[in-house]
Amino acid sequence: MALLITDECINCDVCEPECPNGAISRGEEIYEIDPNLCTECVGHHDKAQCVEVCPVDCIISDPDHKESKDDLMAKYRALTG
């Protein structure tokens, strides 16, 4: 699954630089994750780095973008060429 930042986000700016795919950006009110770019760090790290650094635990699996580890790896390969 791609990840989703909930409205509990405090805009601390910690997650954005940790994303190896550039999937996180500042939205109008809170940070947002582009599901087309999010691989949950599959291919880069063992764990999703944004989840690891988030001080308020507001990053969850996005129920609207369900993907298997194989799907995430295929997306990683497509993104990294």
TrEMBL record:
Cellular component, GO, one term: cytoplasm
Keywords linked to the UniProt accession: 4Fe-4S, Electron transport, Iron, Iron-sulfur, Metal-binding, Repeat, Transport
Gene3D superfamilies noted in UniProt: 3.30.70.20
Domain 4Fe-4S ferredoxin-type, residue spans: 1-29, 31-64
Example GO molecular function: metal ion binding
InterPro entries attached to this UniProt entry: 4Fe4S_Fe-S-bd (IPR017896), 4Fe4S_Fe_S_CS (IPR017900), PSI_iron-sulfur_center (IPR050157), YfhL-like (IPR047927)
Matching NCBIfam families: di_4Fe-4S_YfhL (NF033683)
Cross-referenced PANTHER family: PHOTOSYSTEM I IRON-SULFUR CENTER, PHOTOSYSTEM I IRON-SULFUR CENTER-RELATED
Designated name of the protein: 4Fe-4S ferredoxin
Organism: Methylogaea oryzae
